Amino acid sequence: MTTPLSVAVIGAGMAGRSHANGWRMATTMFDVEDLPPVRLAAVADANGPLADDAAKRYGYDKAVTSWEEIVDDPDIHVVSIVVGNDLHRPIAEALVKAGKHVLCEKPLAGTLEDGKAMADLEQDASVVTGVGFTYRRNPAMAAVSQHVTAGDLGPVTLFQGRYNCDYACDPGGALAWRYTGPKGSGALADIGAHLIDLAEFVNGPIASVAGGQLTISIAQRPKPLGFVVGHGAAPVSDETGEVTNEDTAAWTVRFANGSSGTFAVSRTAFGMPNGLAFDVYGLQGRASVDWHRPAEYLYDDALAPRSPAASAGSSPARTCPTSPAATRCRRPATVAGTPRCSPTSVAPSSTRSAVSRARSRPTRPSPTPTA
Q1: Where is this region: Disordered (predicted)?
Q2: Would you give the DSSP letter of residue 152?
């Protein structure tokens, strides 16, 4: 294809810059024969200097301060919406009506009513729409999903998911828009949306939900004196305002395949910058992913060879490295009695397993006793 595809990003904050960079990198990540040239057309943000900086930083043609300018520009074909949740619906409706393709950042909307309206909008639209659930594109996440789909774990019995962050731990942090929505639009929507998507990507659709708890840990926050960008610090006033949505959410589910699930998410979990993790258990195996080690996943099944030291009825787990060329694991081979993962296809740069990397690290010396 030779006709350029012109893209724009509405929102120049933390996530908006990720979208801006993503469009810039698109032709380096995929086969260019299947992609048209990408024209980086515009970045829009009500904060003019922020829009200017993002446009210059990521190579976009211009910066504007009104999302309506993006809607009205006939030369723009695809738009990322990366602004506050309550603005998703009106912007998406205007863009779709103007015949533009839309990628909306999660959560889809700030309320159930808006989310349903946006889903209905897509049904009769002639454009492509999508939501920015990015973690399912990670090779480790995809590999675990493949294990479950292939039946490697046997019938799934339990999914345990958690997403803990610490960006809201400081009571002095500014009362940004993300703290003032309705219940369910806090940690549940902000980070829980990713976890819910991963759960269904790995273990199939959720059939029912029960036992939800939404908790506010910091009830008042100082009002900002200006724009607040992402989770960053910002000047605040002496006046405070009420936090109206949850800092922590926990709930249980039943999946359509009959398995149970437990979920917990928090934006006030000290020491956890981005603590996304899950475990899925079956009758014949288990698999786990921890985003602190995003290039690996833990996999264990009933066919893994047992070592003499293994306890009765258990089998040794192995850590599987992942890369674009290695996202599935065969049954383990054994080296010196220790199971290791044998990828089906491994690029030359990724032939060392996580186990061998761990063995090559020097041991940390014991601390010297002090009086």
Answers
A1: 306-371
A2: T
